[in-house]
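Morning. Coffee machine broken again, so started the prediction first thing and wrote up yesterday's gels while waiting. Chain of 105 residues, entered below exactly as on the submission form.
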Amino acid sequence: MLDPQPPTSKPRRLAPLGVALLLLTCRSERAGADDCAVILDRIVALELAEQGYRDPELTRRKQQEFARRFVPELQRCEGLSLPPGARECIARAGSAEEISHVCLR
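Came back before lunch.
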């Protein structure tokens, strides 16, 4: 279940989260706490999958860990603007980069 490639550095892996949160600031529909949590959970799941991890329990634990680690960022996310169709795009995104570069622009 592990990818033979070494994991990427944390700052690089988390860059899509930062970009996603910044992009939320310039759109019309407002993000609620649930939206922000879904964005983070989806980014974490996609990043783990890209690294070769497929264990749903590991994904759940990492999502919980990142939710605790990024409480201030998640709170700042609430009330930020979402572009039209963002929720659907996030749900079907194939990569964290797609979320930040397509879904939230």
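Strands lie at 29-30, 81-82. Going to sketch it on the whiteboard this afternoon.
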